[in-house]
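Instructor's aside before we start: the two examples that follow are unrelated to each other. I chose them only because their records fit on one page, so don't look for a connection. First example below.
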Amino acid sequence: MGNNGEPEDALGALTWQTLSDHTVVSGDEARRRLERVFPPFVLPLFLFDGEQIMALATDHSADRVEQVKRLLNLTPLEALQERVVIARRAARREALDGVGRAALEQAELALAQLRAQLQRVAERQRRQAREVKELDERVAVLNAALAPYRVRTVNEDRAKLQGQLEELITKARKDARALAVELPVQAPWLFNPTLLTRAARALGEQASGVEHEARAESLSRVKERLDRELFAVAPSYAAPLNHKQILFYKDRLRQLIDLDAPQPDPDQLQLSTAERQLAIRRLEELAGAEEVRARWLKTIRQFNEGRVRLQALHERVEELAVEREDERKRREGLQKERDELVELHAKARAELERLNQEQKELQGKEAAMVGEVEAKERQAATTDAAARRADLAERVEGLLKGLVPLAFRRQKDELEGARERAPARAAHLKRPHRPRGVL
């Protein structure tokens, strides 16, 4: 408000000016007056009742100003919706008694507090987002600062992988030695041709009571199992198991179990029950050998994985070596350039010192020459002054000799002229003269 109770804002001033003639007797009259002053598209006056319009002339609190600003920014549709909300709120308040009205006011106050709290939470979230962004920027700066130390990390990984590979190699060698010891014990028939023959005969005896197709299928499965489960390990296990011997046994078994070859007569097989049971037990021991082989294959797989990782590590080491070589060449180039610059700087400094020495020598020579010139100038000036004095004396003497007759002649002429003018002057002086100042 101003000094005379007038509002300071434009809206309040215009409202105050409209209602200042003290002829407004009701809110409707004030509404009609303001509608004549404010265009509908500037101020949606239909949102206000008469009492609110009257309050605009006197109430200029922060809440009232914010309410007016908000209403001024509403679209027509939003203004109609706001009007409906105001009307419903007024109807509810009129319908409520004193207790209900107080409860409604408390609820509105709680809602306002909740909105303020939500606003504070949003502000805190925005502040935290700014802090997170700052932390991200700091982390980026730290990552950039730690970039030169990545080579150390690669070297550490290389040492770690090298240790793991050595452990795998040691474990593989240990398993190979154990397999070389266990396999002859668990499957001794692999190293005994007699047991192999008896095992084949036992297989034929077991298949004697079965149809030819079933026997052929069974023997085919045995053959496939032997080829797949037993002899597949021969190339990988060649060193500790005598590769030539295993290939010999493999060919012998194929000859014994070949389906195209004639099958032996079961009646001609002279195998005791103990030998038959031993052959069957030897075949069952193949499962134990399979477990050993599984461990061996696992070791081989781990060894291959370690070899792949070592190969990748070697490639990375080569890349690092190339990078280090490039860095060394660049460093050598920079060192060479620096040495050249140092050498040029030394040459330039030596040349500068030589030039300074020459400058000092030239300055000394110049000072000496200046002294000689000044001495010669003083000597020449002395000689010239004496000559000029002698010449001037001669000239003065000649002038004096010429001026004396001239002066006598001029004085004589002046005396003769004065003598000639004397009579006229005397006659002039003798004439009567009128006093000065008399008419």
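Example two begins here.
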Amino acid sequence: MIHTSPSPAVAQRTNAFQPDAYTWAFVPHLIIGSNDHASRWSPWKSRLFMGRMLEMADIPSSACKDFASIYAYLQDETELLELLRQVWRMCTLDQYKDEHAQMCSVLEWLNEEPSIRDLDRLIRYIKQYIRTCKEDQEWWARCKHSAVIEPWILRSMLWGKDSFIRELCFLPLGKPLLLGVPASPRPKTITSLLKDDCAKSSRSYIELKTDGVAVNALSDTGVGRNIMSLDHAQKCGASIDSSSEKQHTLSNAVGQEFRCIGEATVRVAFPDRLTPARNVVFSILEICSEPLVMGRAFLKTTSCLTRFRHRLIKVARSAAQSLSRVMHMDSSSERLSCQVSAQRVAAYADTGSDVDLVSLQYASEHMWGIIRNPGESDRVTLSDGSVHELEGYVDLPITIGAETSMRRFYVLAGLVYDVLLGAEVLDQFDIWNEHTDSLIQIEAFERNEYCNIAWYKRFDQVEKEVDDMIKGTFTPVKQRTRLTSFKAMFGRGGNDARGARTQHALAQRLYEIDNIEKCERPLAQERIAGAVGDAKVAEVNSDEDRQQRWLTLRTKIVSLQKRVQADGTLAPGS
């Protein structure tokens, strides 16, 4: 008998059933029908599969004593076994030439089976399986003809891809899926594409207790600090320190700054009770789209992205959340070395972003054809709650290590990075487990470029560029001679495109001088500490002059950003 949700017996079985590794490695072949003992699964992969199969079949604890009892029980459950085989084989028939026709036929058949409505997870597996297979056309063509005849090939098609195995870890259990035949394909606009991304994407959360209050905390590598909303701080009775030194400055993905109202120290624990509770410092935001956001330091300390990744749960975005979100709040020296359209780039990895982004200037410099629909307003929400218009999108291949995948990058004017990678692609490639060698630190590079090689020369250059912007003579992106090329790059011309380029250039210069100051300040402190007498006084004066010069230029750039945002241009007299 198949149940829609786990019964009390299942909960008891979870604690009582402790099979050995050999059992886990062999049992899946009974489901698939393969006698290929030599290619048994690893216990880890088998546990993912069998944990759900046993739960859906509601195998009693009496049948889970050893391998022989499980074998006997599964042989009796002919209805379940045959049902699984039929569903999988329907996905490999040659008569279905495309994914849409496949899924229509499968779902029509499933709706005729009264018991299949309880196997919502199986249907999710099928959809993911089809998407995974289609990513490699050659592999698909080679395997699909013999999959029905050779069960071990069918097994490989279903479970052989690591990305598909990882997807199983995050599927919600016990939640029914509304079945229905998909509508006929229709032309996609960027708005409908964003809605599709919203419908199929999910966000990674960590189940925590803050001073005893249960909450789902967003895991976000795009913020260094841990963030708590004011509402949640009041709910758990946190004491907020609102002194000026605790009101830190944060910045969104386009360099616009906002401040937290203070800090609070809260007792945080995982619900499994296996890890002791700890005191965690949170920056408090008066308005935040999430009650809790756990930053890079917490994720690294607790190994939530690596060793203890099972702590992450996937929560699907609701249909009401029509706008994609980028929760970037500060920068980090860590970057992901990858290739986008065969161009080497140090991308910023942000698990708090729903989409992959590329800056307008970077897309324009590489002459990527930006696709957009005139008259539409396609937007993204940033961490401070501000909403920004997207310029369009580009479909490009991304290569990380030896893996390549086609991704959709949305174009955002003013993005402070060339490329920002969101949660979906980071999960797909399993960056923090499979590609740690692609994670690089840029701080050492910045020290060499800015601090050790006459940083003031670069600072002079930035000052001149900012002055040129004020005079209206600076061009952030090299002008093309043909008007058609200009329109192809930006999707529109006139002041809007010039303003977007200027806004991006200002954000980049602000980010650059902040990095120069960040690298130079500790070096200056070292020089002061090592000097004596008049030399020490000279070093102190030089340090004060440098900081004052940095603050002056920074204030000037922020003022220009506000002018561009208000007027859309930096034309003389505006």
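Residues 125 and 494 are 48 Å apart (CA to CA).
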